[in-house]
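Weekly structure sync, notes
Attendees: PL (lead), two postdocs, one rotation student
Agenda item 3: pending single-chain targets
PL asked that the sequence for the first pending target be pasted directly into the notes so everyone works from the same version. It is reproduced below exactly as submitted, 200 residues in total.
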Amino acid sequence: MAISLQKGQKISLQKNPSRGLGEILVNLNWNSKPVKQGILSGLFGSKGIDLDLGCLFELKDGRKGTVQALGNAFGNLNNEPYIMLDGDDRTGNSIAGENLRINGDQLCKIKRILVYTFIYEGVANWQQADATVTIKYPGAEDILVKMDSYNSTNKMCGLALLENINDETFSVEKIVQFYQGHEALDREFHWGIQWRAGHK
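Predicted structure, written out during the meeting:
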């Protein structure tokens, strides 16, 4: 079984008293294949969608930053920021998709995490991408954050906000809201990072 969140809905992760939260896995899967539209599509070709998974983080000590493939900011699971991106799936064909890992045992050092995805390559066709985020952690039901809002030409989407609750657990809120880019997402959630162009 899995819990499918509605937009704006919050749920708290269930903490095991003996083990804590453990490792929290945030998985993104999507359909990379372009939809063929008409006979000319075969003549001119059509590229698939390359989605990137990432997050903004804010630690209790005030440090802020991002974990994402763009800029090679893959993070670290056992040291600050206690968040790590496994790798960069450029095709969407990987069965495992893209994964962010959060060290739930370092909960007391993390204030909040905003998970997002953005279209690195391809047309902003979110319905075609059919992306789903699944949050997994030990001994509990999966939490699904489905991208069920599609009407946007913006290439950035805020997916889910995880917030520290009294150093006991994280609350998870479904966002699924679209933005022009990293800076617009930052402004909406008052993160305050200084942005510059990055590359893979």
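Discussion points:
- The chain has three helices and 13 strands.
- The first strand starts at residue 2 and ends at 4.
Action: rotation student to compare against the earlier draft before next sync.
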